[in-house]
Design brief:
The chain is an alpha+beta fold. The protein has seven helices and eight strands; from the N terminus they run αββββαβαβαββααα. The chain has one domain: 3-Layer(aba) Sandwich (L-fuculose-1-phosphate Aldolase), CATH 3.40.225.10. Zinc ion binds next to loops.
């Protein structure tokens, strides 16, 4: 188990609130997240930040986020709000993966399609997809992850990997921070769409072990995440999607 020091524990709650809200708005604008799905961040003390069941992913604000415990119970949040039904997907992964500080769950159709046909399994075929070189497991149960038992089962399917598909349902991506999570979600979907397109042209050529090792050596993950986070935040601010006073 990777026990990399937890990045989120150095960030203040208010900073994390702004990052989670911004990440959600950007993933929605990128059409990775839609009318459902969610982003969570680990807080100190076995607590998480997550949006509510009802709040629109297109209009999320930092003070709308809930704080829940790892049993999925809401500890604080706006009156009348409740956790998303699939809060257990987040809590049970965060419970058993100390290297993970942020989780995204979404239902991206062009990615989900890899669980719907008796065709090639989704694998890393693009350079930035080396993040998933260890494999992208497929969770066989398509049910909503709306109980702790289902959350534990999904966490077991994910294992030590950094993303998983849920058959006929969606995806889960995990990372060490919210900026890393946004960039991983972008690259995860890029890779799936690229593989779908490549399969239309012919036999898909997965990355070889040598190519994977070469990309891993060359890729400076922290610098890459910082560069792309700056790009996407800047783009979103120019579009008026993100307020300029959020500390991102
Ligand atoms: Zn779902």
């Amino acid at each position: 188990m990777n026990t990399t020091p937890t990045v989120n524990q150095t960030a203040s709650e208010s900073h994390l609130r702004e990052q989670v809200a911004a990440c959600t708005l950007m993933l929605n604008e990128l059409e990775i997240l839609g009318y459902s799905g969610h982003v969570s961040a680990r807080l100190q003390g076995d607590r998480i930040l997550i949006q509510s069941f009802d709040q629109s992913r297109a209009a999320l604000k930092p003070d709308m986020l809930l704080i829940c415990d790892l049993d999925g119970r809401m500890l604080s949040g706006p009156d009348g709000q409740r956790p998303p039904a699939e809060v257990f997907l987040h809590t049970e992964i965060l419970r058993v993966r100390p290297d993970v500080n942020s989780v995204a769950h979404f239902h991206h159709d062009r990615t989900t399609v890899f669980t719907l046909a008796d065709g090639p399994r989704l694998v890393a075929i693009k350079n930035h997809a080396v993040r998933w070189a260890s494999g992208i497991p497929v969770h066989a149960d398509p049910s909503h992850v709306n109980t702790a038992a289902r959350g534990r089962a999904l966490a077991a399917t994910l294992g030590e990997h950094h993303a998983a598909l849920i058959r006929a349902h969606g995806q889960v991506v995990v990372a060490e921070s919210i900026p890393a999570l946004l960039i991983d979600c972008v690259h995860f979907v890029e890779n799936a769409v690229a593989m779908y397109d490549a399969a239309l042209l012919g036999r898909v050529l997965a990355l070889s072990d040598d190519e994977i090792e070469s990309f891993k050596r060359d890729l400076k993950r922290d610098k890459h995440i910082s560069k792309l986070w700056t790009y996407y935040v800047g783009r979103a601010r120019a579009q008026g999607l993100l307020p300029s006073d959020w500390s991102l």
